[in-house]
Write a structure and sequence with these properties.
The protein is of the alpha/beta class. The protein is about 50% helix and about 15% strand. About 30% of the residues are buried. The structure holds NADP nicotinamide-adenine-dinucleotide phosphate (NAP).
């Protein structure tokens, strides 16, 4: 199948980088009005700067859409002539529903809606995807291989879950960065120099994430228990952090619920 990418910014660029790194002989048609990043200067990349040029020459079997949600409608309208009824539309735009693409391209257009997150830029992303009724298992497997180049990929069967997915893995990196900030502030509150406290907090999150990655079969709860000696300092800390009334579990539920609510509100406006 021939692949095209529309929008080669942060997220589209991460995808293209992964596609090129796979090392195959596939050719990628890329529509991007600006210059391409240096890694994309490659004989396997056809760069189109205008939709007119793209529509004239490109006939992709799968069209990956990676422009900002607010410019998605005009971008799609300009590409209609390059899209056949069987062309697979793959969108990574936040909040854009499958139905919104079928309004433009046709009610039976096969569409995959995917939600990546920012670590995709370094190949450590978490992408979740959902397919419209017309997408075959074979097409899902094929697209999955191309979407999965930025990290891990999971599928959901129900599009309504995409707001929940966005609230956990889409927005999740920001929660972890907030954790670094608050841990560093807490270190200052017990006497650490701000610079040192930030180094400790940041490296601790990096190290803990790497440990979790190196041991995928061990549940997070066990990883936590492994570093919690009975009667020790970590146990004393976790009694506060995971305390039923005050702390983290309830805060995280409210955090994720707020993101879901905002996602639903934005979805109604789209
Ligand atoms: N970044 C993330 O963490 C993230 C996470 C999840 C999902 N997403 C989704 O990924 C999509 C892209 O986000 P991004 O952060 O990668 O944005 P971005 O860096 O701004 O990239 C978008 C690219 O598309 C180009 N573009 C604009 N209009 C176009 C058109 N009509 N045809 C072709 N290309 C066009 C832009 O060029 P100009 O700069 O010249 O306008 C830019 O290079 C969004 O829909 C977003 O919701 C992003």
């Amino acid at each position: 199948m021939t692949l095209a990418l529309v929008g080669c910014g942060k997220m589209g660029g991460a995808l293209l980088r992964g596609w090129l790194a796979r090392g195959g002989h596939e050719v990628f048609d890329v529509l991007e009005p600006g210059d391409l990043p240096s890694f994309a200067i490659d004989p396997r990349v056809n760069h189109f700067k205008t939709a007119t040029d793209f529509v004239e020459k490109a006939r992709p079997e799968a069209l990956f859409l990676a422009v900002k949600p607010q410019v998605m409608d005009p971008a799609c309208e300009a590409l209609r002539a390059a899209v056949a009824p069987q062309t697979l539309i793959v969108s990574i735009a936040a909040g854009r529903t499958i139905e919104s693409f079928q309004r433009i391209f046709g009610v039976d257009q096969p569409v995959i809606r995917a939600m990546p997150n920012t670590p995709a830029a370094i190949g450590k992303g978490m992408t979740v995807a959902v397919a419209s009724g017309g997408v075959s298992e074979e097409q899902k497997a094929w697209v999955g291989a191309w979407l999965g180049v930025t990290g891990r990929l999971e599928w959901v069967a129900d599009e309504a879950l995409m707001d929940a997915v966005t609230a956990v893995s889409g927005s999740g990196p920001a929660y972890v960065f907030a954790l670094i900030e608050t841990l560093a502030q807490a270190g200052e509150s017990v006497g650490l120099d701000p610079v040192l406290s930030m180094i400790l907090a940041r490296q601790t999150i990096i190290g803990a994430a790497a440990l979790a990655e190196s041991d995928p079969g061990t549940p997070a709860e066990s990883l936590r228990r492994n570093v919690t000696s009975p009667g020790g300092t970590t146990e004393a800390a976790l009694e506060v952090l995971l305390d039923e009334t005050a702390a983290l579990p309830d805060l995280m539920i409210r955090t994720v619920a707020a993101a879901v609510a905002r996602g639903q509100a934005l979805g109604q406006k789209a």
